């Protein structure tokens, strides 16, 4: 079943959800949208006053979050023509521009690069990280996130079933990849919080998924629960805190030369 964005501004063509990128304004996709949004909001607070490029920006919502967060300027870059046109029309604001090109080819004057949930799609992640280091210069910073294979893929599997992913990483593999190209690497883990943490515990300890299936309320439950998820239902922790990073949903690397 294909889902499409709802209630877009006049003149802005809605995008269809394909699974390659997340979208706002699709209630069924809200969990994944909020999981991405909370990272953009966190980065916006760290990138105050910087010139930012948001590579593989997709629909453009994250670039808009960064532009509202006190950055000097933001360029959102994506190669997809539909996503580019949508972002250009929907998020017209001072200090924000969109460019359509391959992320490996983009060049410009920035001191902050953002690449979220994309490096797992690339056949040559080392080349991309080397490119990011060149873009941000000796005093810049890059924010690069990727999902944790241990919580995304079935237990024991090397990769999830996402057809767009080339490789998914464990924490130590991802840290090693980043350290090949940056002198200072801080790795944060994104975890469930608040009601998502309670929901996760209910599944793990009370087999909640089995319960609602037996009660035949799965569809109405998630039709209510998923749109109610907010960015506050996630938490970022440096090195995962006391629990470590193995249980993280995503890894967010803060990279400095």
Written account of the structure:
The protein has 257 residues and is an alpha/beta fold. It has a single domain (32-191, 237-256), classed as Rossmann fold (3-Layer(aba) Sandwich). 34% of the residues lie in helices and 21% in strands. The chain contains 9 helices and 10 strands. It has helices at residues 30-46, 61-67, 81-90, 125-136, 149-152, 171-179, 194-206, 208-214, 218-225, and strands at residues 3-4, 16-17, 51-55, 73-78, 96-100, 112-116, 141-147, 184-192, 234-238, 250-256. Strands 5-4-3-6-7-10-8-9 form an 8-stranded mixed beta sheet, with helices on both faces. A two-stranded antiparallel sheet has the order 1-2. Helix 3 (81-90) links the parallel strand 4 (73-78) and strand 5. Helix 1 runs parallel beside helix 2 (61-67) and helix 7 packs across helix 8 (208-214). The protein starts with a strand and ends with a strand.
């Amino acid at each position: 079943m294909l889902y499409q964005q709802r209630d877009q501004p006049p003149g802005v063509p809605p995008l269809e959800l394909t699974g390659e990128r997340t979208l706002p304004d699709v209630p069924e996709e809200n969990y994944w949208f909020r999981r991405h949004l909370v990272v953009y909001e966190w980065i916006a607070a760290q990138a105050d006053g910087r010139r930012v490029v948001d590579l593989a920006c997709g629909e453009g919502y994250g670039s808009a979050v960064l532009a509202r967060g006190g950055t000097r300027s933001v360029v959102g870059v994506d190669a997809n023509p539909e996503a580019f046109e949508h972002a250009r029309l929907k998020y017209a604001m001072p200090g924000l521009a969109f460019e359509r090109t391959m992320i490996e080819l983009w060049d410009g004057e920035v001191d902050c690069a953002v690449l979220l949930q994309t490096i797992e799609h690339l056949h040559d992640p080392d080349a991309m990280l080397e490119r990011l280091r060149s873009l941000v210069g000796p005093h810049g910073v890059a924010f690069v996130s990727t999902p944790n294979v241990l919580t995304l893929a079935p237990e024991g599997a090397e990769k999830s079933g996402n057809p767009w992913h080339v490789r998914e990483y464990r924490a130590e593999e991802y840290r090693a990849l980043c350290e090949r190209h940056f002198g200072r690497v801080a790795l944060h883990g994104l975890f469930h919080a608040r009601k998502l943490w309670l929901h996760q515990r209910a599944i793990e300890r009370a087999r909640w998924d089995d319960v609602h299936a037996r009660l035949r309320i799965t569809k109405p439950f998630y039709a209510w629960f998923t749109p109610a998820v907010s960015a506050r239902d996630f938490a970022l922790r440096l090195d995962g805190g006391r629990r470590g990073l193995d249980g993280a949903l995503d890894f967010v690397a803060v990279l400095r030369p």
